[in-house]
Q: What sequence folds into this?
């Protein structure tokens, strides 16, 4: 079970647009996850790679989730047509947060006790994050394009997104 080989993880794009930040976020998680998987598959200790992945997830991903739950999703809920989609995005956040917590618990003490479980958790987290970012980007694009009021709402909602801490290239 491999998230991506080192050959298929692209270099991060330039930060020209908001969607590029999502690409870099996903790239950072996938690249860190891939390094851990390669260590595990080779029978090496994932030590620092696993600590790097967990640190990034806890510092960047969970902070972004909290920011979106507090700032973005309430603005999207103002447009009644987005209720079900926001419900799904919030459910994704709960699942992603649980994935982060599960991975941290599985790697407690620096060495995972169940290598297969860590590999499954990394794979699930990367896939879930990718799907979530695609849905979220689609919602923001549709909200901003629907009408002038939607554009104002999307513009206000996007204020939180310039957070790029931890997204160095």
A:
């Amino acid at each position: 079970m491999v998230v991506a080989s080192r050959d298929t993880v692209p270099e991060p794009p330039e930060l020209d647009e908001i969607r590029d930040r999502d690409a870099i976020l996903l790239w950072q998680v996938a690249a860190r996850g891939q390094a851990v998987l390669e260590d595990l598959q080779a029978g090496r200790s994932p030590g620092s790679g696993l600590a790097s992945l967990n640190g990034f997830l806890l510092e960047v991903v969970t902070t972004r989730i909290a920011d979106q739950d507090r700032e973005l999703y309430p603005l999207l809920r103002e447009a009644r047509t987005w209720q079900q989609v926001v419900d799904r995005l919030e459910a994704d956040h709960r699942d992603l947060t649980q994935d982060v917590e599960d991975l941290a618990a599985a790697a407690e003490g620096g060495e995972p006790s169940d290598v297969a479980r860590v590999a499954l958790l990394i794979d699930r987290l990367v896939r879930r994050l990718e799907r979530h970012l695609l849905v979220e980007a689609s919602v923001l694009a549709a909200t901003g394009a629907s009408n002038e009021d939607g554009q104002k709402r999307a513009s206000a909602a996007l204020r939180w997104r310039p957070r790029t801490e931890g997204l160095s290239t």
About this structure: Residues 18-160 form a domain with the Four Helix Bundle (Hemerythrin (Met), subunit A) fold (CATH 1.20.120). The CA atoms of residues 68 and 74 lie 9 Å apart.
